[in-house]
């Protein structure tokens, strides 16, 4: 069935036309053969009956006068004038042979004794003519050694004097029938050949617009919506071609509209990328400014305050006042430490002074001390030469990843790898925590917690790739790949 479905409709139409023609030819052939056979048999019987009737009408007096010579002469002349007559017999009313056309023995099966002299054979005469034809003669069939013999029996004077028996071989009829059958099959073969040519031509005419539609469909599949197919008819295929052209025009219009929208989207995406990049730049600059202000102004002010408090503490004599001043100094020390930590998180000076690896090591060491978590950090032997934007992006992604691990992962180990190859720097962060499900990720996105999406956005803005792999109960792997230098 699958192979049949793959056959071209061109061959299917040819097969249907030729198959129907062959079926009709077989049916007509069977009907024609049967009709011809019946017609030939009828004509053979009529001819035998005419010969027998003619002989019966002339042999009446010869039988009564016992003129056997005249009978034999008449029978032989009648037989010689008709090629399909095998024999002619004249019997009396008792079935005794009076005259015949055999030169020797009768054919096997013609009489009860197969190999007997005709003079010694007595045929059983018909007792009655109940099964006679409307013309008044009987028909009998014998299987002889020469084939099927059809015998026509005509009574002489209603059978009171005797009977004329004319035996006709069906071989002659069969030969004629076979000749007609051969001619029929030759004609059928010629007609089938002509029908094949006609079917091929008709199929090509029918299939041509369908083939054009199929070809146009392939062009549509390739994205060529400007393709048009020729409409040559007004039938169903013509209507289909018109509908196809209309569909192609609609698709072309939609394609142009989509291209316009896509171009607008690309323009907006490029503008958004520029705005996001500026936003990150402004954000980092603001962090840098605030970090410097905290470090240069606020820290110095607190340091000066601690110095004044130290001087003041040395001049106090009241123990209660000293206690109060020591408590205030401790508060100022804690505030100073908090401000220093905040300044480092906002913009670590070590990132600008010593590079990305030193900044990462410092942050990781602080993370270990705060969260008591085992963190492994593998770096290349030779530090990569990275631009400021790339270094800052890697540092922020590391910060965000470790913050998420501390808050949500419930991990005990973290593996961090920094490597570079062929102008690409890769940061991999893997933990053995509980992972995060897709539902939780979508919920965090809806609630505005965009840590992962923010890291992805930051990486893509710099022309890099961000991959996030997580398995519930088996941890999370973040892989970031960025160019070492921005073009």
From TrEMBL:
It is found in: Cytoplasm; Membrane. Its main location: cytoplasm. InterPro entries: HAMP_dom (IPR003660), HATPase_C_sf (IPR036890), HATPase_dom (IPR003594), His_kinase_dom (IPR005467), Sensor_HK_TwoCompSys (IPR050482), Sig_transdc_His_kin-like_C (IPR004358), Sig_transdc_His_kin_sub3_dim/P (IPR011712). Its cofactor is [4Fe-4S] cluster. Residues 293-486 form the Histidine kinase domain. GO terms for molecular function: 4 iron, 4 sulfur cluster binding; ATP binding; metal ion binding; phosphorelay sensor kinase activity; protein dimerization activity. Pfam families: HAMP, HATPase_c, HisKA_3. It comes from the Bacteria. Its EC number is 2.7.13.3. Keywords: 4Fe-4S, ATP-binding, Coiled coil, Cytoplasm, Iron, Iron-sulfur, Kinase, Membrane, Metal-binding, Nucleotide-binding, Phosphoprotein, Transferase, Transmembrane, Transmembrane helix, Two-component regulatory system. The keyword Lipid biosynthesis does not apply. The chain crosses the membrane at residues 13-34. It catalyses: ATP + protein L-histidine = ADP + protein N-phospho-L-histidine. Residues 244-300 form a coiled coil. GO terms for cellular component: cytoplasm; membrane. Residues 204-256 form the HAMP domain. Member of the two-component regulatory system NreB/NreC involved in the control of dissimilatory nitrate/nitrite reduction in response to oxygen. NreB functions as a direct oxygen sensor histidine kinase which is autophosphorylated, in the absence of oxygen, probably at the conserved histidine residue, and transfers its phosphate group probably to a conserved aspartate residue of NreC. NreB/NreC activates the expression of the nitrate (narGHJI) and nitrite (nir) reductase operons, as well as the putative nitrate transporter gene narT. This is Oxygen sensor histidine kinase NreB. It comes from Propionispora vibrioides.
